[in-house]
Fold this sequence. Notes:
By secondary structure, chain A is an alpha+beta fold. Chain A has helices spanning 22-29, 85-93, 102-115, 121-127, 139-154; strands at residues 2-7, 10-15, 48-51, 54-57, 70-72. In chain A, strands 2-1-5-3-4 form a 5-stranded mixed beta sheet, with helices on both faces. In chain A, helix 2 (85-93) crosses helix 5 (139-154). The longest helix of chain A is centred in the C-terminal third of the chain and has 16 residues, at 139-154. Chain A starts with a strand and ends with a helix. Chain B has 3 domains: 22-28 and 467-603, Aldehyde Oxidoreductase, domain 4 (2-Layer Sandwich), CATH 3.30.365.10; 33-132 and 190-237 and 244-277, Aldehyde oxidase/xanthine dehydrogenase, a/b hammerhead (Aldehyde Oxidoreductase, domain 3, Alpha-Beta Complex), CATH 3.90.1170.50; 283-462 and 610-760, Aldehyde oxidase/xanthine dehydrogenase, molybdopterin binding domain (Aldehyde Oxidoreductase, domain 4, 2-Layer Sandwich), CATH 3.30.365.10. Chain B has 16 helices and 31 strands. The chains are: A alpha+beta, B alpha+beta. At the A-B interface, helix 2, helix 3, helix 4 and helix 5 of A face helix 1 and helix 13 of B.
Amino acid sequence: MLVRANVNGEWRTADVWAGASLLHMLREHLGLPGSKNACEQGECGSCSIWLDGELVCACLVLAGQAHEREVRTVEALSARETLHPVQEAFLEVGAVQCGFCTPGLIVAVADLLMLDPSPDEPAVREALSGNLCRCTGYQKILDAVRLAAERMRAR
Amino acid sequence: MSVRILPGTRGGVGESVRRVDGVPKVKGAFQFASDLWAEGMLWGYTLRSPHPHARIRAVEISAALTDPGVHAVLLAADVPGKKTYGLEFSDQPVLAWDRVRYAGEPVAVLAAADLETARRATERIRVDYDVLPAVTDMGEALRPDAPRVHDFGNVLRHIRIEHGDPGAPADVWVEGYYETGMQDQASLGPEAGLAIPADDGGVDLYVATQWLHVDRMQIAPCLNLPEEKVRLYLAGVGGAFGAREDVSMQVHACLLALRTRRPVKMVYSREESFYGHVHRHPSRIWMRHGARRDGTLVNVYARILMDGGAYASSSAAVIGNASTFATGPYEVPNALIEGTCVYTNNPPCGAMRGFGAVQVCFAYEAQMDKLARALGMDPVEIRLKNALGTGSVLPTGQVITGSAPVREVIRRCAAIPLPEEPAASRGGDPCSYPGGAGNVSRGEGLRRGMGFAIGFKNIAYSEGFDDSAEVRVKLFAGPAGPVAEVHSAAAEVGQGIHTVLTQIVRTGLGVEHVLLHPPDTQVGSAGSTSASRQTMMSGGAAQLACAVVREELCARVRRRAEAEGRALRGEITLEGGAVLAGNAPVGRVEEFLEMPIECVRTYHHRRTQPLDARGQGDVHVALAFAAQRAVVEVDEELGLVRVVQVATAQDVGRAINPQNVAGQIEGGTAQGLGLALMEEIQLQDGQIRNASFTDYLIPTILDMPPVISVLVEEPEPGVPFGAKGVGEPSTVVSTAAIVAALRDATGRELNRVPVRPDDLIGLSPPVASPGPPPSPDVPGPEPIPKRAGLAAGQADLMRGD
């Protein structure tokens, strides 16, 4: 089936199998592998993206459901040279190790700080409880959220 | 080796510099193995056995081949070379031919135009199995009438370590039985790679692995190709933790690529990943500790049984570690340690972070707490009293010559402030209770507990293995100053070795601009990214190579000064891209680089020895120690747990990148917490029941407490910068510390991990054992016949018994 969606500001069309997920369409048809596939069950958050501004796991959305809708992925967050404050904070505090969960986490944190610029720690933990990370033990991710929130508020 | 740190160069050793691969990783632009793509590429898929033990009568592939999208279906008969592989013993079939020995074993591989076509076509392959009785219990595997997993028997390795007088009397004895479950590494990046057939008849393989060269050593004979025609390149690795030590899809993808003459990509799904890599060995451990009334350890008996699953993988080394570390980081004058790893028809077990040291730490630390209680001593005090130090003798007779700040890590850990006491009246937010939103109480049943544990882990490979590392360093003049290029095959799996290498080269050459050549097999082996060894081994090789490059540069500086009739005063040093003689500047580094300077060096660690028949030998290169204190809250009515705080002190030798060291400690602690509280591959008659992230739980951000870490820096002599590996000790101790805290909170025995809610509220009794099984009657420490050794040819393997 043909799916037409606005992906990162550009209207794109893909010819996908009716059972394909949005994640599959992004990764295998549109050349956007930034969203990762680690569980394909919506458990790990590695494929977090925005669908019409709503944070979703792209593996749980059928490609067809994105038809005529707006999709934003991690690739949209930083222009060629500049980094989003959340990306900058992740690097600065050492919240990246293997990096496989990182794109999903960056999207989830950017989403959280858009909705709540000053989340307290329990709120951050609750918001990120759907993003699994196997490397960091999450401590430096919490540090990164604090730092990014501070800087984004100061802007 | 003299170590000279040049202070003037930014981003060198000792600084928390940013990751070299950080920017692409946060942008989603870093190419992981599962992101690889090539023009005209096919997708590979694996058909796996549904039975833990069966004879293969026939395989029918014609139905699968009818789909026009299918390009090849391969069976064992299509493997052109050696039909088996393995890290230590070549006992694992590339594709099963006469027998399958575990549920999930590959039987056929298929290449198709896309993944969905490949999946569906694989379902049309018909395999006629004759199901055989399976042995899926490690204790049963030792019975003489048990089904044999391999023709030569079920004993994979048996070790007996006798130290002092194992009959020595003691004033107080404590006994215990302990079990640990099968843990999964659960790296988020799945097994993946892309094989591209080459014009010379060889193959180029881009793959996520921990050791490129040992993969090639196993792949090339199976393809019947010389090693130089099998070229490996490291693709982005989404975590490893031991699971990528073994070959998974490597040979399969190469076979399909060579057959179809098309690039072939293979990526495991999460479910397949649970079947497609080895796991942490489940264990059963019996221990008896004897001490004098003052708390001094006198005698330890330990019997360890581990389930190696269907194939050897690195099981021989894992049981070696478990056995040699069985008495913990304590002085024990008399001991008898017996360790056995058996084959079963369960999925194979092998390397996972902590590598045999985790299971025994859970047991010996529970024993130390029992002993403290029996003697009325403080748990910290009894550990301080018996702690190892430099000069101590291990049960293997090995004398510790390196740094061993065990008392220091205990004291520094114990001194970290405790978390605040819970408010007398809870009220408030139920999300702060154990179980978070899942807690339905008003906090009535909450009990707080504290536990303390110490442990240790070897750095680098043991028992006589020379796991050397090669690095090439090239210094040349770039358009904006001197540039150093580092070429190493060391696998960056997230731990940060690439950043560490650039730091070491900056310090070694006084040059800030350091480039990394992509890791591949065009340079010599770096050894495995395992055993907390790369900082010492590849870091050591980089340091050696830099020293030679620096000497050549200094020689050029002297030659030019002589030619110009100038005298240079003082030592020549390199700093921030400048050459200094004494304190006087001589020129810029690039002025002396009309010709680049290039050097390849190999670092070898000090020689170790194999264990002898009595389990004696200088087996380990170096040891790293850690202490952890855990504070937990248990809801005694609901069986829910919240870990409130983990405090830890770790012996790191020297922190090359302190921020990364802390990151390793925090991440390692999370995996230990997982084993303590939730992580277990549930097996029923050899079948994995929970092969998904919905059913196999790993810690989330809601499960992890703050981890407060203190780095104890006492440099290891004879090692580059004195730096010890840092990846594993936290995983070794945290399971033991957290369960000790649960025991303190509940008063229950809790002798099996992961601890379940049922265990915490007394619905299920502690696991019991009739006693240790008799030692197997095997001919010495190597029951597997030599013909199955890694170097054995296929003819030897096929000969049979």
